[in-house]
Write a structure and sequence with these properties.
Helix 3 packs across helix 8 and helix 5 crosses helix 6. A hairpin with a 2-residue loop joins strand 7 and strand 8. The longest helix has 16 residues. The protein is built from 17 helices and 16 strands. The protein starts with 5 loop residues before the first helix and ends in a 5-residue tail after the last helix. It has a single domain, classed as Rossmann fold. Bound molecules: S-adenosylmethionine. The site of S-adenosylmethionine has 18 residues, from helix 6.
Length: 391
């Protein structure tokens, strides 16, 4: 079995040779986002094969346009609640191949003309390869330069502030995570070393104050041997987003749980997984740079960080309920029963699959308790998010 992309392995090994062992989060950052050899930074031709039905993993937008269409419908309601600002800005961070944006823009152009005329869609993407794929999917709108823009970083929008919608789907789970384990010495962190041509892990003290603070805030009483992941980067992203938005909604879709559920004592091995060629493994030290790595999102900490920086939690639900609230039954009724597109749309709603593993966190700022159609059927309520302790 390959240890991974040879130049990437050499580059990580060289960093370890200089600095000594590195926290797992640094290893994951390099494996996914090394500027030349990281998984998401490879050539567009490589990435187009890796993400999709036949790739390492697929997202809702690879399955069916219905999520992008429902989000356009949700945006139209937000636009009306905001008094139809000009421009109405949508910021999508981590757009992947750009399919969600394509489905959103097509639906807006077709059904919500007034919004479409005032729409500015900003794609925030750190990978030049992914940006190139997005450009292909944005081709129908590239003749309207004021409509589509690309940014490497949301900070570029900070000066004017955003009136509109800040959106992401499967962004947070692609941020590098710290991995921790409870030992006889307390809570320790997994660090990565390189020995005899292999990456190996060792347990050492926590690498940063931000990480210790996060663990302390969770306040869980875990048994010895318990292993889990901490996404410190998710909280700094949320802080940045909360400060960026002027009036509007932050809508975050990802697979994840409340802290109470994610960090419950019986979830002993955490949720960290690697994806390669339509299969799942727990071997981050193999296929380095040739496979995706993810961990489920702690939505409680995201919501609490938003509250700390001026956002209000509007609601928390799952993809099935979100889509139902936006009238997905009517969209599905229009499809030929049992056709491949019908089956694909149903796949996004499966109660034991994408319909419930994917959650939707909605937050607002500069609006008074907005009542959104996507939150009409909430299986989870704000109180579920505010319970910090997993004990
Ligand atoms: C799993 S893919 C997202 C899939 C996509 N949203 C969809 O619905 O199909 C994660 C994407 O986020 C991008 N990304 C990761 N961290 C980022 C960051 N800090 N800023 C912008 N883009 C980021 C990756 O390069 C990749 O394109």
């Amino acid at each position: 079995m390959s240890i991974g992309h040879p130049e990437l392995v050499a580059s990580i090994a060289a960093e370890i040779a200089v600095s000594g062992p590195i926290p797992f989060a640094r290893f994951m950052e390099l494996a996914l986002y090394h500027p030349q050899f990281g998984y998401y930074m490879r050539a567009p031709e490589y990435m187009v094969e890796r993400i999709g039905w036949r790739g390492d993993f697929y997202t809702s937008s690879d399955v069916h346009p219905i999520l992008g269409q429902a989000l356009a419908k949700q945006a139209e309601q937000i636009d009306r609640l905001l008094g139809q600002p000009d421009p109405f800005i949508v910021v999508e961070t981590g757009p992947g191949k750009g399919l969600l944006a394509k489905h959103f823009l097509s639906a807006c152009q077709r059904h919500f003309r007034s919004l479409f005329e005032r729409l500015q869609y900003a794609l925030v993407e750190r990978s030049p390869a992914m940006q190139a794929l997005q450009r292909k999917n944005m081709a129908p709108w590239l003749d309207r330069p004021s409509c589509i823009t690309w940014l490497n970083d949301v900070a570029k929008l900070a000066q004017e502030g955003v009136n509109g919608l800040i959106l992401s789907n499967e962004l947070i789970d692609s941020f590098p995570v710290h991995r921790i384990q409870v030992t006889a010495n307390g809570t320790e962190e997994l660090w990565v070393d390189y020995q005899s041509g292999r990456f190996v892990e060792s347990l050492r003290p926590l690498s940063s104050e931000a990480l210790s603070n996060y663990v302390r805030r969770i306040g869980a009483d875990w048994p010895e041997g318990y292993r889990t992941e901490i996404n410190v980067h998710a909280l700094s992203w949320m802080q940045q987003v909360a400060q960026l938005i002027n009036r509007g909604i932050v809508l975050t879709i990802d697979y994840g749980h409340t802290a109470q559920d994610l960090y419950r004592p019986d979830r002993k091995a955490g949720t960290f997984l690697c994806y390669s060629r339509q299969s799942v493994n727990e071997e981050p030290f193999l296929r380095v740079g040739d496979q995706d790595m993810t961990a489920h999102v702690d939505f409680t900490s995201l919501a609490n960080t938003g509250e700390e920086y001026g956002l209000r939690t509007t609601g928390f639900t799952n993809q099935l309920s979100f889509l139902m609230g936006l009238g997905v039954e009517r969209m599905i009724e229009a499809l030929e029963p049992d056709s491949p597109t019908f089956k694909a749309a149903i796949h996004l709603l499966r109660p034991n699959g994408m319909g419930t593993t994917f959650k939707v966190l909605v937050q607002h700022k500069g609006m008074v308790s907005p009542e959104l159609d996507g939150l009409k059927y909430k299986p989870f309520f704000d109180s579920a998010l505010t319970t910090q302790s997993a004990a």
